[in-house]
Design brief:
- The chain is flat and about 70 Å long.
- The strands form two sheets. It has a six-stranded mixed sheet, with helices on one face.
- It starts with about 30 loop residues before the first helix and ends in a 6-residue tail after the last helix.
- Helix content is about 50%, strand content about 15%.
- It is of the alpha/beta class.
């Protein structure tokens, strides 16, 4: 008999003295799981394969998107774009003076994701508190990404803490920059990053900037066929990735049902109560002597 184990280990810093390890694997019916061994192994293999196909489709999407961006970048009035970018960050940071003292901090996060249900984002809640919101529209390669990079760089130079939201397709690129001290943010919109600014209760001013206006249509017309083809390929890559993620989610649900059926929830409830009581004791202030 061959036994294959996969270990996910997080070493405690002070086992027994400070850290407590709770292994929920101690509270399942091993005989029941052993009876479903072949099904469990098969589901794991199929799920891994579906994730691989999804990730490969997203890798291909990134390549196609870069190709698409190259067509528009080649037809861009870069001088006009740089001028508009300077206008944007000057407007957002107007009246701000370099802060004295500590170095500005930047939190790097993701605001959106590719999921079994397609693209999902929570920008409306993440940007709550924003009063001025800049929506940067345009095809890939037309300047929105550079605008966000420059805005982030200038805000940090002035000592302002920022939140930088990265693109899930290419984490080296930004999708949004939030500057809480200025009550302002900028978001790069795309077909897969759309949200309703009306969900931001604090919003007072919405500014839309279309970078497509700086594209030479005549130059783009010469590669119109390639642009159409690239857009179709890009759409297909995303649809396939989302479909494979959905199939993996369905199989994961089937796998979860096998484990749920084998769990000894009465014992887990006791562990939960005991752990909660221990935490409450730790949180109680010491009594006065």
């Amino acid at each position: 008999m061959t036994i294959v184990t996969t270990l996910h280990v997080v070493d405690p810093s002070y086992p027994g003295a400070v850290d407590v390890i709770i292994n929920l694997g101690d509270y399942w019916d091993e005989d029941m799981l052993a009876g479903s061994k072949e099904r469990i192994v098969d589901l794991h293999k199929r799920i891994r394969h579906l994730f691989l196909m999804a990730f490969n489709s997203l890798k291909e999407a990134r390549v196609v998107r870069d190709e698409l961006a190259s067509y528009y970048a080649g037809a861009l009035d870069q001088v006009a774009v740089d001028r508009k970018i300077a206008d944007v960050y000057s407007d957002i940071l107007a009246g701000t003076r370099p802060a004295a003292g500590g170095k500005a901090r930047v939190r790097r996060l993701f605001a959106s994701a590719n999921t079994p249900n397609g693209p999902v984002n929570h920008l409306d809640s993440l940007l709550e508190g924003t009063k001025r919101l800049y929506l940067l529209k345009g095809e890939p390669g037309t300047g929105q990404e550079k605008a966000l990079e420059v805005l982030l760089s200038e805000a940090l130079r002035l000592g302002m803490d920022c939140e930088a939201y990265h693109c899930p397709l290419d984490p080296h690129k930004l999708e949004a920059v939030n500057i809480p001290a200025a009550s302002a943010a900028a978001v790069r919109l795309s077909e897969r990053l759309a949200f309703s600014p009306e969900g931001i209760a604090s919003l007072e001013e919405l500014i839309c900037i279309d970078f497509n206006r700086y594209v030479n249509e005549g130059i783009c017309q010469a590669v119109a066929g390639e642009i159409i083809e690239a857009n179709e390929r890009l759409k297909g890559c995303f649809l396939r990735a989302w479909r494979k993620l959905g199939e993996a989610k369905t199989l994961h649900d089937d796998l979860e049902k096998l484990y749920v059926a084998s769990m000894k929830f009465t014992e887990i409830d006791r562990i939960r109560e005991r752990t909660l009581n221990s935490l409450l004791v730790l949180g109680d202030p010491p009594s006065a002597g």
